[in-house]
Amino acid sequence: MNSLKKMFLGAALLAIGHTLVAAPSVKLPPYKKAQLKNGMTVVMMEQHKVPLVSLQMSFKSAGSTSDPTGKEGLANITGDLLCKGTKKHSALQISQALDSVGAEFGCYTGLDFTSCTAEFMAKDTAKCLDLVAELLMQPTFPDDEFAKLQTQSIDAIRSAKDSARGVVGRYFTSFLFGGHPYARPSGGDERSLASITRADVANYYASMYTPDSAVLVVVGDFKPADMEKMVTQRFGGWKAAAGAKPIDLPKPAKVEGQKLLLVDKPDATQTYFVVGNVGVARDNPDRVAIEVVNTLFGGRFTSMINTALRIKSGLTYGAGSGFSMNKVAGPFVISSFTPNASTGRALDLTLETLKELHQNGFTEEDLASAKAYIKGTYPTTLETSAQLAARLSMLQLFDLPDSDVNDYYTKVDAVTEADAKRIIADHYPLNNLCFTLVGKAEEIRPMAEKFAKEIKNKSISEPGF
What we know:
Layout: H1 3-16, E1 32-35, E2 41-46, E3 52-59, H2 74-81, H3 91-100, E4 104-109, E5 114-121, H4 125-137, H5 143-160, H6 168-177, H7 190-195, H8 198-208, E6 214-220, H9 224-235, E7 258-264, E8 270-278, H10 287-297, H11 304-312, E9 319-325, E10 329-339, H12 343-360, H13 364-377, H14 385-397, H15 403-406, H16 408-413, H17 417-427, E11 433-439, H18 441-448, E12 454-459
Parallel strand pairs: 2-6, 7-11, 7-12
Antiparallel strand pairs: 1-2, 3-5, 3-6, 4-5, 8-10, 8-11, 9-10
Helix pairs in contact: 1-13, 2-8, 4-9, 10-13, 10-17, 11-12
């Protein structure tokens, strides 16, 4: 379920009031975990509600943080090229094979890992596993397909810069994280993408796509014993010259004081802005309490920040906040947009709302509404086999226990006023803030200068972020 649907569902649940019946706790269905002799981890969950099978193969060391300096976007391009040609089939033949059985295959590269997903009818399991194994183990990265994707990727970056909405987050993370690997764009930029060669892709694949770094999760209409046998037959003989080395990520430093990046987009009529700092990692013990607090501050339509900037003042059509929880601390952000003329007022109101959060905190009644919202929407994130496969993958990749799901409601219910007060003090920066504004600098610079002594200026037409 996307964030907008979740937002309005939560609002609808709250409108019912406190007559809501307490939702039963959500538990992970049973699953089996095995390890092949080549080191590949296999997780299998049996689900017979619909005749579908969903799988997700993730590679622990193939995230964008493993991109060589100056070749940002290499991991992303490598993943996208897996289905563009193998030793047996061309890109067109692969597409035809998938279409013939209504199957889907795709890859996503994040900061910490790359995941390839597939979904198909249970009756086509053997045929589709053959194809998935071929795509993952025998890609050839044809020259023409590489050149086409490289051009498309560079054009996509330039096209994204036509709208501030699509790039403000990339400018913010680059400015916030500075020299840390998280500052580098996962999809690359105009310069780094142009420097990548087909040989780079082949070498990256050979070093990062290894069975000992792979986690395969399969959920759906099958018997685990049968699935384990089929997976072993197809992947058991996969060998690599050397295992992929895990990326050693340093702990990112938080911004001290206030700094601001102003990205000039001369034709902009609105300013898109992000305010925040370094947040928390995925394994932070406060993560559930943070979600409860953030639901009230910026995680739903009726949140503090959206109420202040949209509902009461009409300065924007939407405002929110959130934490990206990665292997190490990702960003905490407050984001919105507003007409050029009201940029200063919108930023003032953002900081005033943040100050109000620290001064007033939340009552038990506030927390009860957030808990009802979270518990009402959480089950919808674990409904399908694809969602379950994604969740099981996250548990494996971040080394989290099953209790991350099984005890989730208990942890949500346990959050108190005192907990919320501590979370606000510890994780919501008030004076140490990083600002990024994308808009017409000529108009918004006078308003932006009051928010930071240190201001960096950049043109959106410049390559990179």
